[in-house]
Design a protein that fits this description.
mainly beta; 119 residues; 4-stranded antiparallel β-sheet; 7-stranded mixed β-sheet
């Protein structure tokens, strides 16, 4: 079992930046790929970014490519999402999730952190 706790969300103006963090605990010895998903009001949850355990494999959703950067620090059991050039369409609850690979359906999910971008 893996527990995931996100932090770093908040209110930011359009054009601003935020960095989300996701701390993992529990079975962190397993080599999980880590993901970020988001869900905007009235919309389905969507994939944002994923990173393999080694950090060598990374993929992004087209909608955030070039603005967001995913990274991880395995020594701290933490994954990050640096979000730049935010716009109101990025407003959503952001979820951290752990899975086997960067393409597999995650097995574990965090509770989410709210990101609100004002225009």
């Amino acid at each position: 079992q893996v527990q995931l706790v996100e932090s770093g969300g908040g209110l930011v103006q359009a054009g601003g930046s935020l960095r989300l963090s996701c701390a993992a605990s529990g079975r962190t010895g397993s080599r999980y790929a880590m993901n970020w998903f988001r869900q905007a009001p009235g919309k389905e949850r969507e994939f944002v970014a994923a990173i393999s355990w080694s950090g060598l494999a990374i993929r992004y959703a087209d909608s955030i490519k070039g603005r967001f950067t995913i990274s991880r620090d395995n020594a701290k059991n933490t994954v990050y999402l640096q979000m730049n050039s935010l716009n109101p369409e990025d407003t959503a609850v952001y979820y951290c999730a752990a899975g086997s690979t960067t393409y597999s359906t995650p097995n574990y999910w965090g509770q989410g952190t709210q990101v609100t971008v004002s225009s």
